Amino acid sequence: MKGLKLSLVIMAAALLTIGLSGMAYAFHSGGVAECEGCHSMHAPKAGGAFLMVGTDQSSTCLTCHEHAGDTGPSSYHVSTPGAEITASTPPKQRTPGGDFGWLKKNYTDASGTYTYSEDGATHGHNVVAADFGYIVDPTNTAAPGGTFPAAQLGCQTCHDPHGQYRRLQGGAIAKTGAPIKASGSYNGASNEPTATEAVGVYRLLAGAGYTKDGITFNGVPAAKAPSSYNQGEATNQVRVAYGVSTASGHVTWSQWCATCHTAMHSTGNYVHPVDQGLGSAVASLYGQYVKSGDMTGSAATSFTSLVPFATNSGDYTVLAPLASNTGTSLAGPGSSDQVTCVSCHRAHATGNMHALRYDNGYEFTTVSGEYVAIGNPAVTSTRAALQRRGRTIADWQATYYDRPATQFATYQRVLCNKCHAKD
Questions:
Q1: How many domains does the chain have?
Q2: Is the model's pLDDT at 278 over the cut of 90?
Q3: Residues 366, 370, 371, 373: what is their CA dihedral angle, to the nearest 10 degrees?
Q4: How far apart are CA 38 and CA 41, in angstroms?
Q5: 387 assigned to some structural domain
Q6: Nearest-angstrom CA–CA distance, 161 and 377
Q7: What percent of the chain has pLDDT over 70?
């Protein structure tokens, strides 16, 4: 018995270490997790439906994916508690998808006769998680460009909580067949399928036939991420290798987003091209662009997670080496690589409106070598409120994943220029 207790302690310590390192697959492992992690078999802890441990589905997810007391980016957490977000303290998580905590960060500003107000709800997807203070979008009753009801939006809208979708050897996506042995989200041989074993799809995303409140997904997009991915990027960026697969059961990233935002991809609303090759001219500009006024970059080191792209490959063994958190995989795009929705938006929420990766609300990102923020003495015009928009330097630095303003030009313009170089 003593030996058994010691073994359990060692196992628990090992699982805790895995969780804190950012490797979320200790629980989900690419497929359905242990039932009692989300369901209380005899007495729902929060009185939720389906014996869930939370009041609703997103609250159940956040019982693990939010953690009070984090001092910085931590593990698989995607939400900073509202009590820890203050006027001087922005959200803390730096996952590729963003931090839902930005939905609770409202902004106001005033200068001269100008005032500015911005609701945190504009910063991303307003998932409903009553136990954690996330409420229905106060403005949009349905997904912009679509019909999905805002009141039903939750983690389970985009992710299959039971993780039935799997990638088989050869690349096809299915719901049955070979058993899921591991997460397919990360690099490494153990995250690739064999003739007899499958791996999970990227981030348990909804696949073909997955239906919620009137919308049905047609497939999953391809991607690989490093196993540790929640970190500031002042020194090393996190690169998620987004891909383009034509294998059975796959769709492009933009097609997947269009499940809810259909009209944004229809004739007349197709504002920015997606799912087509960048072309040699744009690929060349991306490689050369360093910052405003500086076109001395090298294509071999030009990647930025603030403006990622989809590699034109559905071969996961090609995507895996591109996924990195150490700054060792920074090659820019080729002419056949593609712009996609996630090139400009993060999936959850950000410090910018519309979950944008970078700000496009003012022509400058920095002025006189510092972010355009409260605390920058160079921002003194009577219209300063419309330029700062209530942000502090700390807010902007968190929005840009801890990059100091010195990584940009002294007068840095909007990062659309990473592809278009008009600055």
A1: 2
A2: yes
A3: -120
A4: 10
A5: yes
A6: 48
A7: 91
Q: How confident is the model at residue 10 (pLDDT cuts 50, 70, 90)?
A: very low
**pLDDT tens digit sequence for 86-124:** 999 999 999 999 999 999 999 999 999 999 999 999 999
Specify the DSSP element, H or E, that contains 181. Answer: strand 180-182
CA angle 104, 105, 108 (to 5 degrees): 135
The range of the structural domain enclosing residue 379 comes to 357-420
201 in a structural domain: no
Alpha-carbon torsion (97, 360, 103, 106), positive or negative:
positive
Residue 4 domain-assigned? Answer: no
- Residue showing tokens 């997103």: 58
pTM of the model: 0.92
Q: Is it the case that residue 33 has pLDDT exceeding 60?
A: yes
Residue type, 392: T
For residue 168, give the DSSP letter: P
Q: For residues 93 and 70, is the Cβ–Cβ distance under 8 A? A: yes
Q: What is the mean pLDDT of residues 333-357?
A: 97
Burial tier of 271 (Cβ tally within 10 Å: 0-12, 13-18, 19+): exposed
Q: What is the pLDDT of residues 372-389, one digit of tens each?
A: 999 999 999 999 999 999
323 vs 243: CA distance, rounded Å: 11
- Using DSSP, state whether 410 is helix, strand or coil: coil
Closest C-alpha to 219, from 243, 195, 189:
243
Does residue 217 form part of some domain? no
